[in-house]
Amino acid sequence: MKTITVRYFAMFRERAGVSSESLRTDAATAGDVFRATRARHGSSEPLAHCKVAINDEMTDWDAPVSDGDTVLLFPPVAGG
Amino acid sequence: MKTITVRYFAMFRERAGVSSESLRTDAATAGDVFRATRARHGSSEPLAHCKVAINDEMTDWDAPVSDGDTVLLFPPVAGG
Amino acid sequence: MLVVTPDTIDPDALRRRLFDNAAGAYCGFEGWVRNRNDGQDVLRLEYEAYAPLAVSEGEKIIVEAATKYPHLHAHCVHRTGMLEVGDCAVWVGVSSPHRDEAFLACRYIIDEVKVRLPIWKKEYYVDGDSGWVNCERCTAHAHTVG
Amino acid sequence: MLVVTPDTIDPDALRRRLFDNAAGAYCGFEGWVRNRNDGQDVLRLEYEAYAPLAVSEGEKIIVEAATKYPHLHAHCVHRTGMLEVGDCAVWVGVSSPHRDEAFLACRYIIDEVKVRLPIWKKEYYVDGDSGWVNCERCTAHAHTVG
Q1: Between 20 and 30 A from D114 (CA), which of A68, A71, B15, C98?
Q2: Mean pLDDT across the stretch D135-144?
Q3: Interstrand relation of D36-37 and D40-49 (parallel, antiparallel or unpaired)
Q4: pLDDT of D41
């Protein structure tokens, strides 16, 4: 099991009710973290519509997560 | 013979030394006026590179000129 | 450079920073909060940004633009916080020797900014409702299950 | 509307005239006097316009843009007289509901303004020489014969 810090943004944060939490998980990838926290952020958005960063670097849903990582879950963006 | 007022602009005016003059001519078209005044405005530009207006309306070099018309001879434009 | 700020955007002051005696063209883009979206009357907008990554991703976009269209100066500012109808939400400015590059680079930057930066927009409607833009299905699960 | 003026162009004041609560996008273009053209060092520029026809032809261009891209507000101002390096020679501003139309209409207007308006530009070079832009052969006859 790994300890992952998960950060929620915008709609995900509103839904989770917290901006950040600690997760004990056997998730292998960023996508696994998204799915493991679905009950928290409540989103049925396809992963392709969302973005993810690990330790402040934008990355892909396939990216592996390691113990101690911070995973940032971004709902569909809408800048401008 | 018609009496045509010819107005010169920019390079044409500098070359002619006047901004306007009266021309007694049998010119049938605006293009004829341009050619008849070539010794004045001194231009070897192709007509296609220049523009012409008759009585403050943009027109073509084929446009007929009538007695009393004012023909405006525009060298190649360079706005902006 | 890309800046994320809660302060009012001043396009006139920003464009002056792009002055350059070798630049013959300047193209500026501004996104304004408008009073309608998807058929609903909008009262105001709230922008949330994750600034560290918005800034680094914005830097990448501007470097990409400068690589595609050399000799340009480009800058972008994006607002956060609560904005009213008519407010400027985002500004992009590009100066370059010729206008073709200025237009293309400005367009490239705003197009990429809109789809790549971690910035989110919540609309508040005249009828009292509100919603996150582009996030229709974010709450589908919540509505169905939660 | 298109305006020809000997006065300094104030882009900030001009863009405010395009504010509209239904407009979500603004695109502005400025042509600045630059210090080089065709390999020569430019000191200043002199613009001459035949205002009555510049204005009426400019009106036509703006109507064409508004027909191609509905729901936009567009305005253009062109300077005349002597301009220094860095001065704004022409400004085009367009606001519209969406950015695609704002960019395309702004580009359309400046492209047409540059080739259709009876406006001429004389460059004064650092070496003391001067010349009318786009008019290389205007004096060919003069040089040969005159």
Answers
A1: B15
A2: 54
A3: antiparallel
A4: 96
Q: What is the mean pLDDT of residues A52-57?
A: 97
Residue C7: predicted pLDDT: 98
Lookup: tokens for D137: 């052969």
Among residues B80, D36, D39, D123, the alpha carbon closest in space to that of C23 is found at D36
The answer for B 36-65 residues in CB contact with D (under 8 A) is 38, 41-45, 49, 51, 53, 56, 58
How confident is the model over D91-105, as a mean pLDDT?
97
Q: Taking the mean position of all CA atoms in its chain, how far away is CA D85? A: 15
Tell me the three state secondary structure of residue B49: helix
Q: Which two tokens stand for residue C111?
A: 């197009």
Closest by CA position to B69, among listed B78, B77, B57:
B57
Take residue C101 and report the two structure tokens written for it. Answer: 């590059």
Return the amino acid letter for D95. S
Contact D83, D48 (CB under 8 A): no
Contact criterion met (CB below 8 Å) for C133 and C37? yes
Give me the residue from D89, D117, D141 closest to B43, CB to CB. D141
Give the mean pLDDT of D90-116.
97
Query: Across the interface, which of A9, A38, A45 has its CB nearest the CB of C120?
Result: A9
Give the gyration radius of chain B's Cα atoms.
11
Report whether pLDDT(B52) > 80.
yes
pTM listed for this prediction: 0.93
Residues 6+ away with beta carbon under 8 Å from D26: C28, C29, C30, C31, C32, D15, D18, D93, D94, D95, D102
ipTM for the assembly: 0.93
Minimum-distance CB partner of D110 among B44, B78, B80:
B80
Question: Does the pLDDT value for residue B79 go beyond 60?
Answer: yes
Neighbours of D135 (CB within 10 A): 23
Cβ–Cβ of D99/C110 closer than 8 Å?
Answer: yes
